[in-house]
Amino acid sequence: MTTTTTGPAAGPPLAARPLIALSLGYFLVMLDVTVVTVAVPDIGDALGAGPAALQWIVDGYSTVFAGLLLLGGGLGDRLGHRRTFLWGLAVFTLASAGCGLAGSAAVLVAGRLAQGAGAALLVPASLALLRVTYPDPAVRARAVAVWGAVASTAFGAGPVVGGLLVAGPGWRTAFWLNVPVGALAVLLTVRHVPAPAGRARSGGRTDPAGQVLCVVGLVAVAGALNEAGARGWTSPPVLASAVLGAVALVVFVAVERRLERAVVLRPGGRRPLLPPSLFGRRAFSVTAAVGLLISFGYYGMLFLATLYFRQELGYDALRTGLALLPSVVTGLVAAPLFGRVAARTGPYVPLGAGLFLGGAGFLGWLVAGPGTPYAALLFALVATGLGQTTAALAATAAVVQAVPAEGVGVAAGVFNVARQVGSAVGVGLFGTLAAGDVAGGVRVSAVLAAGAFLGGGVLVVLARREKTIRVTAADPRATADRHPGVTPTDEMCEASSAPAPAGPLPPPRET
User: Fold this and answer.
1) Are 511 and 405 in contact (CB under 8 A)?
2) pLDDT of residue 119
3) Residue 404's closest CA among 195, 123, 194, 132?
4) Which helix (H) or strand (E) holds 284?
5) How far is C-alpha 185 from the geometric centre of its chain's CA atoms?
6) Rounded to an integer, what is the distance from CA 174 to the centroid of its chain?
7) 205 three-state secondary structure
């Protein structure tokens, strides 16, 4: 089953079944970020859960997800992305069944943590498999557009779906829904996402110290960021968790640098989980930073928008979800638009355009007040949603092509960690600013979100200009005609963005 498009940049047909399999996994992950939020009061009543348990039912999932993303990407690069994706789907689906059967708050929290672990395995692997399944850049741009649009729609639909399920069959249905969808994704992956013909032998041993330090550091930092909104940024548990995470990550960086230097001298030695030379690739570093800024601005403001509609305008949960739809469903518009533009220009043009559009949209929230009519906020909702989705899709495509194939898993892990950290910081900071005055907090946060998006847009413009100058100097005849959908800037991003890395990235065993 394939889909075709016409036009000079259409490229080969887009095989739909592998894309459906990979998109379904990401759909489940993003849906479960938000679908539980509106069910919290019902869960508390049904299980007798206290405030701390309810906090972990909501935040435990994203904490473990962020903390294990880098490990999940590294496992995919070493053990095979298809195998890691299937394991992630299996863990996520079984954990969802456990959540649906939970008879106590403790069991439900454990199930949510297990869901986060499964998500951390399948998301980097899903992105890496997109690169391998769709090697043509123009086709890959369309595939990434669909993949990202499905996830964006799932994230935004979460509150609406959760509200409908709570009002109907009950909160447990939100978890049982994942079981048949997860099983379908496994079946489609086994049948339509091809396994490699053979397996290459790994050239080095694993990095257990780096894995432990990475998990401890990221989980501690993510936990501190998640708790900061509720407890305050200066509370002892938040400070202790932040310090622990920072120390672990500093030691992690030192260990990875030592291992990368050593692997040059001893190719058969331990390979770093995250080669520091990866950040020497300017295209990757800029894209990771932009990913953090996108999530900081958009998801922080999405959280405040929910509070604004509930507390300032008096909307119920279902009406709030419907009010947010103009923002969260713009992925259905942004995806085909991005696919067509990126197939001709590469990802950096739509990335910059999305960031500047989103920045302008956030300024539209400056009119928010206690009695602001909903129609006055439509520009802000539509522009931020369209800008965020376009920028996120473009950044995803850019990070895939910024590194060699054998490092896509780790690169995807880093990119998603940056996005999770940005989201947690945005929600925590903006929530603090809105304490006691939601409308005032919305206006202040809107300025910060606009600054994040506009600053990211400036980063992209400067980085792209620098790469274009380097490509022109290297080959004045370079044109975008060489490879459909790849500009000279994109084509040279790996070769000219950074000096040769100090050590090789981990060789793949399976894709």
Assistant:
1) yes
2) 92
3) 132
4) helix 282-307
5) 19
6) 21
7) strand
Going by C-alpha positions, the residue among 331, 299, 502, 505 that lies closest to residue 414 is: 505
Q: What are phi and psi of 3, to 5 degrees?
A: -115, 150
Element (H, E) at 404: none
Q: What residues contact 132, with CB distance under 8 A and at least 6 apart?
A: 81, 405, 511
- Cα separation, 468 vs 466, in Å, equals 5
Confidence at residue 319, expressed as pLDDT on a 0 to 100 scale: 81
Model pLDDT, residue 210: 81
Picking from 213, 219, 261, 208, the residue whose alpha carbon sits closest to that of residue 242 is 219
Residue 80, SS3 per DSSP: coil
**How many residues are listed for the chain in this entry?**
511
Residues 139-182 have pLDDT tens digits of: 887 888 788 778 777 776 776 777 777 777 888 988 998 999 99
Q: Closest Cα partner for 141 from 483, 375, 456?
A: 483
Q: Are 160 and 322 in contact (CB under 8 A)?
A: yes
Structure tokens at 325: 């739809």
Residue-wise burial string across 395-427, b where 16 or more C-beta atoms lie within 10 A, e elsewhere = bbbbbbbbbeebbbbbbbbbbbbbbbbbbbbbb
Question: Which neighbouring-strand residues pair with 2?
Answer: 15
Query: If you ran DSSP here, which 8-state letter would residue 196 be given?
Result: P
d(C-alpha 303, C-alpha 430), whole Å: 8
What stretches of 168-235 show up as alpha helix (H) in DSSP? 173-176, 178-192, 208-231
Burial class of residue 344, CB neighbours in 10 A (0-12, 13-18, 19+) = middle
Contact 491, 468 (CB under 8 A): no
| Both tokens assigned to 222 | 């993510």
257 pairs with which residues across the strands? none
What does DSSP assign to residue 499? Answer: P
- In whole angstroms, give the CA distance from residue 492 to residue 49: 54
d(CA 285, CA 287): 5
* Residue ranges of the chain with per-residue pLDDT less than 50: 2-10, 197-203, 478-511
CA angle 206–207–210, rounded 5-degree value: 155
Nearest to residue 227, comparing CAs of 387, 427, 458, 73? 427
Structure tokens at 491: 């084509």
Q: What is the pTM of this model?
A: 0.76
Distance CA 112, CA 393 (A): 27
- The secondary structure element, H or E, covering residue 110 is helix 105-133
Residue 289, number of CB atoms within 10 A of its CB: 18
Tokens of 37: 């939020």
Asked if residues 451 and 480 have their Cβ atoms less than 8 Å apart, the reply is no
